[in-house]
Amino acid sequence: MGVYDAPQWLLSSWSRSCEGAGATASAEEIRAVGSRLVDRWSEPGRHFHNLKHLLHVLSRVDELAEETHEPDLVRLAAWYHGAIFDAAEKAAYANRGGEDEVGSAELARTELTALGVPERSVERVVHLVTALARHAAAPGDFDCAVLCDADLAVLAAEPQRYKAYLKEVRAEYAHVPVEDYLRARSAILTKLQQRPALFASPLGAAWEEPARQNVAAELHRIRKELAALDAAPQDTPEAGPDAGAAPGTAPTVAEPAAGTSARASGTGADGGRRPRRGLPTFGRR
């Protein structure tokens, strides 16, 4: 999906948000930047964090817009919040799951400044984008609360959509060994469960119960899969200087994990568990 596959209203909406934020560039210049952003969101390898996700976040921002002080800046932050994304293995471990909030915020600063958006508004968009790294709005920051809620709204999706979401996120990190993925995902869901509230805006609070049901169900299943992996016997490698564990094929999170494959991908040449790197925090939403 690219510029020519995007809904006709999308670039018009982008232009209105830029103009509402005070952009002084020509309509053609504004539209050209929007087209490049659509191309970014349409890059190969984006199975979940793609143009469809952008559209979903923008629609949720619109639902909550009456609670914002500067809705155009919130919409611009939504456009940029995942503009820079790389799910390659190193990026997935280093950049909190491939989403580079810092890089995306810098892109917003560069492009919005070039479009003539006032500095104060640009810096506000930068702040909103970087705040998504933790999904935590400061008390009284309703614009940030709305953006965070809009981004997390997928957690409250109806069961079939939530199942599709899990498959899409797993597809983005298919190169990550299944056990590493499950443990990282478990850590994310556990932190979400421990929050007093998942959604900070008054209107977003309506999503709290279905989101908690989805999170609890997914976490329960993942813990069962990890328990099965822990109980499975470890593979015994063949003798020889090049002996080592064969790489396993990671199934989607929405399906039962294959214990033998996960063990194979998590063992070293001596048959013991390989040292685990810092777990990525991909699939936060």
Low-confidence stretches: 236-280
Helix content: 55-70%
Please tell me what the overall shape is: globular
Number of E-state strands: 0
Binned strand content: under 5%
Name the CATH architecture of the domain at 3-158. Answer: Orthogonal Bundle
Distance between the termini: 21 Å
Task: Kindly describe this structure.
The protein has 285 residues and is mainly alpha-helical. The chain has a domain of 156 residues: Catalytic domain of cyclic nucleotide phosphodiesterase 4b2b (Orthogonal Bundle). 55% of the residues lie in helices and 0% in strands. It has 12 helices and no strands. Helix 1 packs across helix 4, helix 3 packs across helix 8 and helix 4 crosses helix 8. The protein is globular, with a radius of gyration of 21 Å. The relative contact order is 0.12. About 16% of the residues have low confidence.
Put the structure in a nutshell.
The chain has 285 residues and is an all-alpha fold. The protein is built from 12 helices and no strands.
Write the layout of secondary structure elements.
Elements: H1 8-20, H2 27-41, H3 51-64, H4 71-80, H5 89-94, H6 101-114, H7 119-131, H8 142-152, H9 159-172, H10 178-194, H11 208-231, H12 259-265
Helix pairs in contact: 1-2, 1-4, 3-4, 3-8, 4-7, 4-8, 6-7, 10-11
List keywords for this structure.
285 residues; mainly alpha; Catalytic domain of cyclic nucleotide phosphodiesterase 4b2b; 12 helices
